[in-house]
Amino acid sequence: MTSPLNDSDEDDVITGVRDARRLKAVADADLHGHMADLDLDAVVATLRLACASPIVVVNIVGPDQQTYAAETGIGAECTSVPDTLSFCAEVVDSGEALTVPDAAAHPIYSQNPMVLTGAIGSYAGVPLIDNGVVLGSVAMFDRGAREFSPEVLDILRHQGKLAGSVLALRRSARMDALTGLPNRVLYGDRLAGAVARLERNGGMVCVMYLDIDDFKTINDTFGHGGGDEVLIELGRRLVGVLRPTDTVARFGGDEFVTLCENLGSVDDAEQLAARVVAAAAEPWEIQGRSRTVHVSIGIAVTDSADIEPLELLDEADAAMYLAKSVPGSTSVVAPAPSTES
């Protein structure tokens, strides 16, 4: 049953376990099991102590998958329960709180694997919301049937909002305020992860380092407001022409960096760079006036998990400065980085 917990301040949230927009937001959040985040751990500890619940989770919900950013009583980073039998998946699908006082007697949740083993007897959960997206749930379980009191449910509701605020602060610290793109910190995490995955997945990783030619002239001509318009629009164009799985980040000023995984060859990287050049060549209107904008792109590609991520970034940066010596928008591929010790 849904409960009177449903007083969320956010009316138009994105729900649905398998909704593509929600799944992208989950991926972009870069959350994982047992994050050791002190604030999320405090949310779990508060609910365990204040509500006398042996199992409490901050659950990031994926298709048939539950990933516990913080938990007590589960003892695992994640579990795999079909969406149709998952309490938390129902919270994500509906965007509403859920209480199940007697799971063993429930026509659906009685078949949940943890209910069948007697590990769970009751459930109460609220949506975990950040930036208008239901990423998962904050939930507590008891081992037997339990009617959760209004006071306990009120604590759960407030702790659910607190967990959402923790994620919002984490996101803002890892995003560029002007463009809404990942910043240097988040990009660095993703680059390190992409390089590490090469050992398992193979393929190639491409870094493109890009800046706007003569950006100072744009600022001098149109003012910083006009310059900001260009930065925001360029970020939008980059996201639009690259793949949904690629990362576009702004490092500051007029510097943008992309991260592209699972490429088959250097030619694939050059084709992506050509898309960026074509996007920059589209007409620009800044404060009602037409203007040509050129970009210089440095490309670095590797298939080695042994390379230092910052070395790959430095190679792309150096190649970008070579590209700036060529008039108009262009790209230059860096020599393959050496991995010899």
TrEMBL record:
Domain GGDEF per the UniProt entry, residue ranges: 203-337
A Pfam family annotated for this UniProt entry: GAF
Lineage top rank: taxon: Bacteria
Protein name: Sensor domain-containing diguanylate cyclase
Protein's organism: Cryobacterium tepidiphilum
